[in-house]
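Input structure tokens:
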């Protein structure tokens, strides 16, 4: 479980496909690798991955963390597009005492979204994202949505998807600041909204007059 508050950006050292499995190696400040065990869960661009190896050389500021990404995950997310040098959003899983500054995030990606338009102003940035029709019932005006692992608020709805209104802090901490037209982001809809909408729709379907 995660909060959608991105802790830092990690950078891709290697992304090699072997037998339909992506061997992904990331470099990250060692402060974020403390007490990190094999089998731990980390959200990478919002996708929950399992740590298979940790390298934290003495004297170095930066360590490396390794993941294996299976074909189903590659099909559902943007992780298959990663190349050496790319930045990814990094969040370790929630522990007791963690501040829940965003919203509860599972790390299970529902779909991907393409940037349709970017509008920058002095104080903020507006991003227009596409969204498959299948998922639009779960993305509400002023509701939560997790974009590349970042807990964000839906600013507007559109015929194609939705708009985000982003402050400079979000743009600097996350890789969303690098967005251009055509960029692809991982999307996880809010689990509470998903459950409520599905429950109501199922009830109405079962109790048609």
């Amino acid at each position: 479980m995660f909060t959608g508050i991105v802790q830092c950006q990690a950078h891709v050292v290697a992304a090699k496909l072997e037998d339909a499995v992506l061997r992904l190696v990331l470099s990250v400040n060692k402060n974020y690798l403390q007490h990190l065990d094999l089998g731990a869960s980390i959200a990478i661009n919002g996708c929950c991955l399992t740590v298979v190896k940790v390298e934290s050389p003495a004297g170095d500021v930066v360590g490396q963390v390794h993941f294996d990404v299976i074909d189903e995950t590659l099909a559902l997310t943007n992780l298959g597009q990663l190349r050496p040098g790319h930045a990814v959003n990094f969040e370790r899983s929630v522990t007791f005492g963690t501040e829940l500054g965003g919203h509860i995030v599972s790390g299970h990606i529902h779909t991907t979204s393409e940037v349709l338009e970017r509008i920058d102003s002095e104080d903020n940035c507006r991003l227009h994202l596409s969204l498959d029709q299948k998922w639009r019932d779960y993305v509400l005006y002023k509701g939560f949505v997790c974009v590349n692992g970042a807990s964000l608020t839906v600013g507007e709805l559109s015929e194609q998807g939705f708009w985000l209104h982003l402050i400079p802090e979000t743009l600097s901490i996350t890789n969303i600041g690098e967005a251009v037209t055509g960029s692809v982001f991982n999307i996880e809809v809010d689990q509470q909204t998903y459950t409520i909408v599905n429950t109501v729709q199922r009830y109405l379907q079962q109790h048609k007059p």
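The mean pLDDT is 95. The helical segments are 71-76, 168-173, 191-206.
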